[in-house]
Q: What sequence folds into this?
């Protein structure tokens, strides 16, 4: 018997090396033993049994074409941060994708709060995952913080740069930054910070494997993002034994839990700088964050994600 054919629509493919592509690649690997898999940016009528569309707005055209040709019961739309916290509020194509989808997939547990109440019955949460890595012993000579995020406004790199400025008299707190330039003005800001703050180091865009290695070696990951659907980099830090400092937004709280001690107000560089100093100066603060992250780690196990994903696809295929 032929295996059912699953089409994953991703607005980004391998060359982008961003969150959408990482999700598409990982899901294809999880599903491949049971299904035939195609990853594409659009659907042009090729034969397939199930569509998983990543990003409501960017994949809306494919979702519409699929729903018109095959109906909604075999269509799931996966909602990202810009979907949940911007696009579905005002963008007609994103709103149409919500309406058309038979299932809505959220990547963190607070996502449903952002959906119109009439759509919430279609929602399910599938946390993304990463393999566990050994927690490395870190040097005591300094604290190494790391931000991972391409240089675009949604990731709020300026808050990280401003925190670096506030810590310019603390050479024992070093701040690394991984991410490609997507907005030229932010690239200029990074170049300026590199020349002014010796403890700030911009590493540019790196491969996924290189990035995970840097996360594993950092004392703490900083994630100041303005909107998130469920940041892969947060769970990769948790799965590496690296605690997180994150902006207090729903997308991050939905990953780390409401009582996590490592939040700072969105855009508050002074609060971020203070937290980094606590990580360096208070002996019990980093262990507390690590313990809280470890309590969330079971949510981000690959076996859990695979089980929930296969349940979703089996349900869609059965209809």
A:
């Amino acid at each position: 018997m032929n295996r059912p054919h699953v089409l994953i629509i991703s607005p980004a493919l391998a060359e982008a090396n961003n969150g959408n592509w990482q999700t598409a690649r990982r899901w294809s690997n999880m599903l491949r033993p049971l299904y035939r898999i195609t990853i594409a940016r659009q659907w042009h009528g090729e034969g397939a049994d199930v569509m998983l569309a990543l990003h409501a707005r960017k994949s809306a055209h494919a979702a519409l074409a699929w729903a018109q040709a095959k109906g909604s019961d075999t269509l799931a739309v996966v909602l990202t941060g810009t979907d949940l916290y911007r696009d579905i509020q005002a963008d007609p194509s994103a709103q149409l994708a919500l309406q058309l989808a038979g299932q809505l997939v959220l990547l963190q547990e607070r996502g449903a709060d952002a959906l119109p109440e009439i759509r919430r019955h279609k929602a399910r949460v599938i946390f993304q995952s990463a393999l566990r890595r050994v927690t490395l012993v870190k040097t005591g000579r300094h604290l190494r913080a790391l931000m991972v995020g391409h240089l675009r406004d949604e990731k709020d790199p300026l808050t990280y740069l401003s925190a670096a400025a506030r810590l310019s008299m603390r050479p024992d707190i070093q701040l690394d930054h991984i991410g490609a330039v997507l907005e030229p003005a932010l690239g200029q800001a990074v170049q300026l910070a590199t020349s002014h703050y010796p403890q700030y180091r911009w590493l540019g865009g790196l491969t996924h494997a290189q990035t995970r290695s840097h996360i594993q070696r950092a004392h703490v990951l900083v994630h100041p993002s303005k909107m998130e659907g469920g940041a892969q980099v947060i769970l990769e830090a948790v799965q590496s034994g690296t605690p997180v400092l994150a902006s207090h937004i729903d997308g991050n709280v939905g990953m780390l839990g409401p009582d996590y001690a490592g939040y700072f107000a969105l855009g508050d560089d002074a609060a971020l700088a203070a937290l980094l100093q606590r990580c360096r100066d208070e002996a019990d603060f980093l262990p507390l964050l690590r313990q809280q992250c470890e309590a969330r780690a079971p949510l981000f196990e690959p076996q859990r994600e695979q089980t929930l994903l296969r349940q979703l696809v089996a349900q869609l295929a059965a209809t």
Observations:
- DSSP finds twelve helices and twelve strands in the chain.
- The first strand starts at residue 5 and ends at 9.
- The mean pLDDT is 94.
- The CA atoms of residues 157 and 244 lie 16 Å apart.
